[in-house]
Design a protein that fits this description.
The chain has 487 residues and is α+β, with helices and mostly antiparallel strands. It folds into 3 domains: 2-134, no CATH class; 164-284, no CATH class; 295-482, no CATH class. It is built from 17 helices and 10 strands. It has helices at 2-12, 44-54, 59-62, 68-75, 102-117, 164-174, 206-217, 228-238, 257-265, 294-297, 300-329, 351-370, 377-394, 400-413, 419-439, 441-457, 475-482, and strands at 21-28, 31-38, 81-83, 121-125, 132-134, 180-187, 193-200, 252-254, 269-273, 279-282. β4 and β5 (132-134) form a beta hairpin. It is elongated.
Length: 487
């Protein structure tokens, strides 16, 4: 087996072509051995300690060792080590390698190559039957720190990173229960990205779990180099839930371990993708996005106040500009208390066009701020808020009321932690705004009805209503989502 393994691996691996793929030959108790590893993904200090021990193994200690399993038990003082066996769905795999076919041997070598590219180290020893895998990986990674988008006033200050194993440990640290399960898959013909499904086996929707596992195992995709979004789009298509015109998100993203752990204990499924600092939660409805971690880190009355503010801001984001459009259109019906908000002077650009331009301008400023170095961030704020805003009003392009409305909408949108839902709400707001600006009150109502139809016809990945527990109506469940209460 030693010669067969080496022949296949040396043929496949770009040793000598790619400088980071290395082969290390050594002797363990007078027996030839070869290690393959990827420089840059391997912990040099850990590997050096293993090498130092293996090269000190006495020949007499190797005389009676006839299998890789025996070697692991007697001569391998390394906790994270295992053996590779063939993966075969057609028939049972014999324990003895003498019963393995050439396809099974090649399958073992392919597994060893995939693991080597993940930072693990395959070890092949002359006279032993199976490939030994040692977990010596050491990924380049940033420190565990609080996510910029999901900061909290109180509570934990850690967050997910691009290291999958680190993310798993952050969840396991919070849920110390035998029912917490992590299942691993490799996705992508080229990237072979590690994907892990996490759930509580005593609470999860088993039908949904089985389908997600099956879909991920059977995904035929060349690469997952852009991470979770590529995986999500493939899953939505396979579930028949991918709608190009439906802006409302079917999963919730989070970079906070405490949020993911809390949802997992409620029966949801978390999908962790290597190289991505965000974890996906499935299934989710519209009301799952209205909860935030600060609601639970403060006393109940304060948590309810925060949730009330978030719901009010959600309504402001959705309806402020369309309603102001109606106030301008039907000035004669505007209450006296709101008359100060109606512009008295003439304006050169129609209100509808002003709002559309401001919608685009605010998104443009957001994109600009993402690509602006921190040292120039204040300069961008001054230019955007003072120079451009002041000039646009004085030149007659915009009136102060429209700028005020869009400023309130922009600030209120930051109370919503989900970027995906924020844009779903934005598209609904623009639809109602266009209806109100072109067709008046009838157009506003039509836009609102279309948005409600989108929400009502949207299904979660489990097949439930996106508006549950509002539709179908269940007051007890709805009350718990709107108001923070003791379970």
């Amino acid at each position: 087996m030693y010669g067969k393994y080496l022949k296949i691996l040396r043929k496949d691996l770009p040793i000598g072509e790619s400088f980071d793929i290395l082969e290390r030959r050594l002797k363990i108790g007078n027996k030839k051995a070869v290690m393959f590893f990827t420089d840059g993904l391997t912990d040099g200090e850990k590997t050096q300690r293993i090498l130092a021990y293996l090269m000190r193994v006495a020949p007499e200690n190797m005389e009676n060792i006839t299998s890789s399993q025996q070697f692991l038990e007697e001569q391998m003082p390394f906790l994270d080590s295992n053996l590779i066996t063939p993966k075969s769905a057609d028939k049972d795999v014999p324990d003895e390698t003498s019963g393995w076919s050439d396809e099974m041997i090649e399958n073992c070598c392919r597994q060893a190559e995939e693991k080597m590219y993940s930072g693990l180290t395959p070890l092949i020893i002359e006279g032993l039957d199976k490939i030994i895998i040692m977990d010596t990986r050491d990924y380049p990674a940033r420190s565990v720190e609080e996510p910029e988008k999901e900061k909290t006033l109180r509570g934990a200050k850690d967050g997910f990173t691009e290291n999958m194993m680190e993310n798993i440990s952050l969840i396991r640290r919070r849920i110390r229960d035998n029912n917490l399960i992590f299942k691993h898959n490799s996705v992508g013909e080229i990237s072979k990205t590690d994907v892990v499904i996490s759930y509580m086996k005593n609470k999860v929707n088993k039908k949904l779990l089985s389908r997600i596992e099956k879909e991920i195992e059977n995904l035929e995709v060349e690469s997952l180099t852009v991470g979770d979004q590529s995986l999500l789009e493939r899953l939505l298509k396979s579930f028949g839930a991918y709608g190009k015109l439906n802006p409302f998100p079917r999963v919730r993203y989070s970079q906070r371990p405490d949020i993911i752990a809390a949802h997992i204990t409620e029966g949801k499924i978390a999908i962790i993708v290597d190289n991505s600092p965000t974890v996906m939660l499935i299934p989710v409805g519209i009301f799952d996005f209205l909860q935030d971690v600060d609601d639970y880190y403060f006393p109940q009355i304060t948590g309810n106040y925060f949730r009330f503010l978030r719901i009010i801001n959600f309504l402001v984001i959705l309806f402020l500009t369309p309603i102001y459009m109606l106030i301008i259109e039907y000035e004669e019906f505007t209450p006296q208390t709101l008359s100060f908000f109606v512009p008295e002077e003439n304006f050169a650009v129609p209100i509808l066009i002003q709002f559309i331009l401001l919608e685009i301008a605010i998104d443009g400023l957001k994109l600009a701020s993402l690509n602006t170095p921190e040292s120039l961030g204040m300069s961008l704020s001054v230019i955007g808020a003072l120079i451009l805003g002041e000039f646009s009003v004085n030149s007659g392009w915009f009136i102060p009321q429209t700028i005020l409305c869009m400023a309130v909408v922009a600030l209120a949108s930051f109370t919503q932690p989900s970027i995906e839902l924020s844009y779903g709400v934005k598209y609904s707001r623009v639809l109602m705004l266009l209806g109100a600006g072109i067709f008046g009150i009838g157009g506003f109502i039509a836009g609102a009805v279309i948005s409600v139809i989108f929400l009502a016809t949207t299904k979660t990945l489990s097949g439930d209503s996106y508006l549950y527990p509002l539709a179908p109506f269940k007051w007890k469940a709805l009350k718990r989502l709107i108001f923070r209460s003791e379970k």
